[in-house]
Amino acid sequence: MPAERLFRLRSLDPDRFVWEVVATWPEAVEAIRGLPVEMAVVDPLLGGQTPRTHGIGRLRQFFPSLPLLVYTELAPATAGVLLELGRAGIRRVVVHRFEDAPGALRKALLAELEQSASQQVIQGLGDILRELPTEIRAALEAMLHAPGDGITVTALADRARLTRRTCERWFTKLGLPSPRVVMVLTRLLYAHRLLLDPGYTVEDVSLKLGYSKTKTLQMHLRAVFGLTAGELRVSMSVDDALATVTQRYFTPARRAAVAS
């Protein structure tokens, strides 16, 4: 992406957005597979002077859960490409110098992030977690990308700017499982959502979630769903996974047991 557009992206909200810059489509695939990437801002001109749909189309094919925002220039050569991308399901385009004022660009980015896999997981648990303070819900989302072997209640409380005891009391008050159990469950729902994308291997998902060993992720998946990662990706839908977790850990009977 040209330096001017990259500067606009980086200057929007440095505390919220961290950008990983790639120069080719293969580099983009590797970054998505191995880093905590929540969305991709792409340009059909990446990798050459002629705009093409191939690279963006492959990202959509490999990673359907990943939001894609096209940020490009308005030129005769790009018109046909944008039309093809629209037919392929790419709906949001920001045109340089016409639609990328800071407020408009930030709004477009946030709208795409609402469709990210992590957001879908948090939204799926929305009814269950809605009575938690906003700070804790935001911290739970952030913990999806924390190292897999280091998801501690203290880390969650620190992100929420609460004491550990206050954090634990909120979960107990609402009859929820412990904060650590809830963190593990949200991460496994996130892992399952990623596993449904054909571009990710089990090892990729383990790496993205920060597990030091893939077998630890496999062990957690078996404990919660009774299935391996490979079995999960071919036999359980997003709704099925959410229903399984809800029934086993968040039913009224379970809440009553925790409260007592």
Distance N to C terminus? 57 Å
Largest sheet data: 3 strands, parallel
State the total count of DSSP E strands: 3
The percent range for helix content is 55-70%
Q: Strand fraction band? A: under 5%
Structural class: mainly alpha
Cα Rg: 20 Å
CATH superfamily of the largest domain: Homeodomain-like
Description:
- The protein is 59% helix and 4% strand.
- It has a three-stranded parallel β-sheet, with helices on one face.
- The longest helix has 17 residues, at 179-195.
- With 260 residues, it is mainly alpha-helical.
- It folds into two domains: 3-115, Response regulator (Rossmann fold, 3-Layer(aba) Sandwich); 118-259, Arc Repressor Mutant, subunit A, CATH 1.10.10.
- It contains 16 helices and three strands.
Secondary structure elements and their pairing?
Elements: H1 3-10, H2 25-34, E1 40-42, H3 54-62, E2 68-72, H4 76-87, E3 93-95, H5 102-113, H6 117-124, H7 126-129, H8 134-142, H9 153-160, H10 164-173, H11 179-195, H12 202-208, H13 214-225, H14 229-235, H15 238-249, H16 252-259
Parallel strand pairs: 1-2, 2-3
Which features does this protein show?
mainly alpha, globular, Arc Repressor Mutant, subunit A, single chain, 3 strands, three-stranded parallel sheet, about 260 residues, Rossmann fold, 2 domains
